[in-house]
């Protein structure tokens, strides 16, 4: 038996024995994590690194497409690392870790497709741009490749496995499907790099393109070494190395200018007061300031193809264009102020100061006379509308002291004052030809009805009209109600129900009165106004009441007679 002098030291060394045994004893896992603890630590560190990097790109990027590309790349890498971590915690004799292992290839080709999509759309407007057919076909090929990998157990086209052998993971070969997927990955990645280089060929930072190209070559070399099981590549962790190289490539592309970031020139340009647009080589508007002029395609093409320094769009606008790298700069100048100034100078030369002073006084006097005439006409018109009611009001006030029923007299006086006030409002609305909302008319009628209640006559207004009514119809409806209420107050009649309705072509006002009111006849002036405005009175004999209606066609209120 052996006595252990320091148990704590022994336990600590035993805890680290598995990585040491694998690396120094068996010579494996030399370039990757060797036990579950190292798997977890390296995976956690790499996930944090990926997330921090993605956050910095999102913060620096000026285009939504670049931000989405960085987020999608980070999401794929984090997902890949997490699946790798889960895979190492599961017994390899089951099917689940094998399918987790299969996901390595879909992650690779999807990452290359994201780079291809980003390279295609990096110089496209962010709105109303549909991917081309070739990009859709590439996406379909990627989906087919993913399906091919996950159905490998059925056909063995990707990995040739002997699942009956216990060590199948270390003794497998590649099928034709695997080489097709690797070719798809390389074609997508190389095409994306080619597109980015072409767009940056005129960049002042051409030397920076070396680093993305070197990383691309390094990625190809690593893949070649991994497939051919060269120890330095095969003994490393594919997911870890691929994630690090992908991030380094993305960041190198940003630093070299292949992917535009670190500038907020788009908001700066769009909010600039300069009336300017940037047009790309295809004639599409790449960026435009808020004050830029909207141009149709024909005018824009004519401007870009013209050899003249500027082109006059209209009397007050000159359009300029200048060729720049990758397209044209187009802007306009407003010369309306210059034209106005020229006209003012020409006019000043023709007129003498004395003549100008006389004309100014003449115009002012004429304007004052016209304003005074207009005021007099308005007041004469208003007086004509309310003179009859004013005369009636004066007579009522004179007789009030001798009246036996002063409450009735006061109600008539209050109603007359209310009518004169609202009739004045209606008069000015008519002069401006402004329709009055039906809800407002209902409020005015309720106001008038409240004064009638002083004499015991109750009126209930029901408005079923939504929207506006022509001003003239409003006036006649209001006159009609006032006349009925005055008649009922004078004759001490019963309650009144008023209903306002409208159809497609008509406006109607119906009053339901007691039988005592059946003798009512509209006065001559109201009857004439109704007929002049294409209206008509109707009387219906009901069981215990009588209905009196006033209706107009929708065009009837256009007359101001």
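^ structure tokens above, recovered residues below v
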């Amino acid at each position: 038996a052996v006595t252990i002098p320091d148990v704590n030291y022994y336990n600590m060394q035993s805890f680290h024995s598995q990585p040491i045994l694998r690396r120094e004893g068996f010579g494996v896992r030399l370039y990757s994590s060797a036990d579950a603890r190292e798997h977890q630590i390296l995976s956690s560190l790499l996930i944090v690194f990926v997330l921090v990097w993605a956050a910095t790109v999102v913060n620096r990027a000026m285009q939504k497409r670049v931000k989405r590309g960085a987020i999608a790349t980070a999401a794929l890498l984090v997902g890949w690392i997490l699946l790798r971590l889960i895979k190492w915690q599961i017994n390899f004799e089951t099917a689940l870790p094998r399918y987790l292992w299969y996901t390595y290839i879909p992650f690779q080709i999807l990452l290359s497709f994201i780079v291809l999509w980003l390279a295609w759309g990096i110089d496209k407007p962010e709105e109303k741009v549909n991917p081309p057919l070739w990009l859709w076909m590439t996406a379909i090929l990627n989906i087919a490749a993913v399906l091919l990998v996950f159905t490998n157990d059925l056909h063995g086209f990707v990995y040739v496995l002997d699942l009956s052998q216990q060590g199948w993971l270390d003794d497998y070969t590649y099928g034709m499907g695997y080489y097709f997927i690797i070719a798809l990955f390389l074609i997508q990645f190389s095409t994306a790099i080619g597109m980015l280089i072409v767009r940056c060929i005129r960049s002042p930072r051409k030397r920076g393109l070396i680093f993305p190209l070197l990383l691309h070559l390094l990625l190809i070399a690593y893949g070649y070494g991994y497939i051919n099981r060269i120890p330095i590549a095969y003994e490393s962790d594919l997911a870890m190395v691929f994630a690090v190289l992908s991030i380094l490539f993305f960041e190198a592309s940003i630093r070299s200018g292949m992917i535009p970031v670190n500038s907020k020139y788009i908001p700066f340009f769009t909010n600039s007061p300069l009336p300017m647009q940037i047009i790309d080589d295809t004639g599409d508007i790449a960026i435009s300031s808020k004050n830029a002029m909207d141009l149709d395609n024909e005018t824009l093409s004519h401007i870009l193809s013209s050899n003249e320094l500027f082109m006059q769009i209209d009397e007050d606008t000159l359009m300029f264009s200048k060729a720049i790298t990758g397209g044209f700069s187009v802007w306009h100048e407003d010369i309306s102020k210059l034209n106005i100034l020229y006209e003012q100078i020409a006019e000043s030369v023709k007129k003498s100061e004395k003549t100008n002073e006389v004309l100014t006084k003449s115009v002012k006097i004429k304007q004052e006379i016209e304003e005074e005439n207009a005021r007099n006409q308005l007041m004469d018109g208003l007086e004509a509308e309310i003179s009859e009611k004013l005369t009636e009001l004066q007579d009522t006030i004179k007789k009030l002291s001798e009246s036996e029923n002063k409450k009735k007299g006061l109600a008539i006086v209050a109603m007359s004052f209310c009518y004169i006030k609202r009739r004045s409002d209606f008069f000015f609305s008519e002069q401006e030809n402004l329709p009055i909302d039906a809800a407002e008319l209902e409020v005015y009628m309720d106001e008038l009805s409240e004064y009638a209640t002083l004499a015991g006559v109750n009126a209930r207004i029901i408005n079923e009209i939504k929207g506006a009514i022509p001003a003239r119809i409003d006036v006649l409806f209001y006159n009609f109600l006032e006349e009925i209420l005055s008649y009922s107050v004078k004759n001490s009649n019963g309650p009144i129900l008023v209903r306002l309705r409208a159809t497609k072509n008509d406006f109607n006002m119906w009053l339901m009165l007691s039988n005592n009111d059946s003798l009512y006849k509209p006065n001559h002036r109201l009857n004439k106004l109704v007929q002049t405005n294409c209206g008509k009175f109707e009387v219906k004999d009901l069981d215990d009441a009588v209905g009196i209606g006033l209706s107009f066609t929708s065009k009837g209120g256009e007359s101001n007679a």
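The CA atoms of residues 303 and 321 lie 7 Å apart.
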